[in-house]
């Protein structure tokens, strides 16, 4: 029994150390992601895709569309009863541009659903590339979900840094720390699902 307890303690310690190491790398990615991509990629792609979850994401997606960095803007995970005019209220986008170039997706209720309904729409449009807009802490998992469904897509991440999430001081902010830990665990579960799918 004592030997079993010792082995268990060692195993838990190793797993804990691995989790902490991975978490540190995840937080570093989130901190560095904004500066890492925004100034490097300016080529137009087929679409700009926004995963709903914050007003900053919508504003950013609209701005990218106005810059000509995508033919259309697809917003995934829109709540039922929210139409285009309501969602884009306050955005500086001409009404005719909203009608022709902004598409809303209502089917997704989570990140897996976001990827699924977006990939279906991309295939319908015969699009093969996108600029993906979501929160910086949400980007890695979102990219993985898209890769699971269609690894042939060209995806340029465009992370948004929510003002309420102070990643640089996460250890002093219980809400931010909890958010990052939850998101990291979700990323791990998604990675396991991805690996199991490949093994199968």
Overview of the molecule:
- This protein has 200 residues and is of the alpha/beta class.
- Helix content is 56%, strand content 16%.
- It has 7 helices and 5 strands; from the N terminus they run H-E-H-E-H-H-E-H-E-H-E-H.
- The longest helix has 36 residues.
- It is elongated.
- The two termini are 36 Å apart.
- The model has no long low-confidence stretch (mean pLDDT 86).
Features:
single chain, 200 residues, alpha/beta, five-stranded parallel sheet, 7 helices, 5 strands, elongated
Set out the fold topology.
Layout: H1 2-37, E1 45-51, H2 55-66, E2 70-76, H3 84-87, H4 95-101, E3 102-105, H5 111-125, E4 129-135, H6 139-149, E5 154-160, H7 174-199
Parallel strand pairs: 1-2, 1-4, 2-3, 4-5
The run of helices and strands is HEHEHHEHEHEH
Count helical runs. Answer: 7
Mean pLDDT: 86
Ranges where pLDDT stays below 50 over 5 or more residues in a row are none
Quaternary structure type: single chain
Side-by-side strand order of the widest sheet: 3-2-1-4-5
Main beta-sheet annotation: 5 strands, parallel
Radius of gyration: 19 Å
Q: Could you give the distance between the termini?
A: 36 Å
What structural class do helix, strand and pairing data support? alpha/beta
The proportion of residues forming helix, as a percent range, comes to: 55-70%
Using the alpha-carbon principal axes, give the shape.
Answer: elongated
The proportion of residues in beta strands is 15-25%
């Amino acid at each position: 029994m004592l030997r079993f307890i010792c082995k268990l303690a060692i195993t838990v310690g190793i797993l804990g150390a691995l989790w902490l190491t991975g978490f540190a790398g995840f937080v570093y990615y989130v901190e560095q992601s904004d500066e890492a991509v925004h100034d490097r990629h300016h080529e137009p792609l087929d679409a700009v895709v926004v995963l709903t979850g914050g007003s900053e994401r919508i504003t950013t997606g609209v701005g990218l569309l106005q810059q000509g960095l995508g033919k259309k803007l697809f917003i995934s995970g829109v709540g039922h009863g929210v139409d285009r005019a309501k969602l884009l209220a306050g955005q500086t986008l001409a009404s005719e541009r909203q009608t022709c170039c902004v598409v809303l997706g209502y089917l997704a209720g989570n990140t897996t659903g976001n990827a699924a309904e977006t990939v279906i729409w991309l295939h319908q449009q015969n699009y093969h590339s996108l600029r993906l807009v979501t929160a910086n802490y949400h980007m890695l998992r979102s990219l993985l979900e898209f890769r699971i469904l269609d690894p042939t897509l060209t995806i340029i991440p465009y992370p948004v840094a929510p003002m309420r999430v102070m990643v640089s001081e996460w250890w002093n902010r219980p809400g931010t720390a909890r958010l990052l830990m939850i998101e990291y665990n979700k990323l791990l579960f998604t990675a396991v699902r991805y690996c199991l799918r490949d093994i199968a």
